[in-house]
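Reminder to self: keep the SMILES exactly as supplied, no canonicalising. Ligand is zinc ion.
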Amino acid sequence: MNTLQYSVYVAPSKPAVSDDLPPGEARRMWSPTSSTLIFGEHDAVLVDPLMTIEESRALAGWVAATGKNLTTIYITHAHGDHFFGAPAILDRFPRARLVSTPRVAELMEVQYGPRWFDGFWDPRFPGQISGDHVTAEPLAGDVIELEGEQLRAIELGHTDTDSASALHVPSIGLVVAGDAVYGDVHLYLAESKGTGRRDWLDALDVIERLAPTAVVSGHKRDGDPDSPADIARTRGYIQDFDTAAGNATGYLDLYEEMLARHPDRINRGVLWNSAKAVMA
Ligand SMILES: [Zn+2]
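Structure tokens returned for the bound complex:
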């Protein structure tokens, strides 16, 4: 039997419409976002099919160019930037199953509702997101089969949103982490009030215990290695944010302290959102 392989597609940063700009920033951007293809000799599984019509069509072309038969699309967590692009993939591969954990499937419906689709996503990306509403089939059990190998959905609880998951491919030591792990990009911590940051640290421990040799972060610089060291870097960022939030007198203070500690990460606008939400 051939061993499985994987390949990562990173959609570049793109502008987002917003007049809420951090000090010194000229425009708001969305972070670069990854999608991962896991494949055997003939068949493939795609994890997280991106957001906009344009980037998901390009992704569909990239998958088609591999010549593999796409059997399954897996959604790690219910944030639209990771699954609103599913219609373009399903157009190209109509026999593929779109699956997620049962809880993610429920929360995906909420992302299509008025609060999130009409109130958040559409205004930031007007006309750029497909109006086709996709529904994920809740996985029965936690296994996706790929050419005799088992891919496992790992429930993580709260990470950068509630009820997130990762996809573990034990035979090749791979964890496709969704937004539980970030590459060199500011973390979205706007949903971390209450126990959110502690829960996210617990999720990182769950991933670390899988002892992966490769970890694909949901948001990363194109070309950066899929390094398990991103687990510890993500942990360090959350701990720094937690300390800084405890000491800060307001959101600007928190924003500036985190920038001083993490000056080179991509997308300061995400930090701006996180600081404002947490200090509100
Ligand atoms: Zn994300």
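Points to follow up:
The longest helix spans residues 229-247.
Helices lie at 53-65, 86-92, 102-111, 114-124, 196-209, 229-247, 251-261, 268-279.
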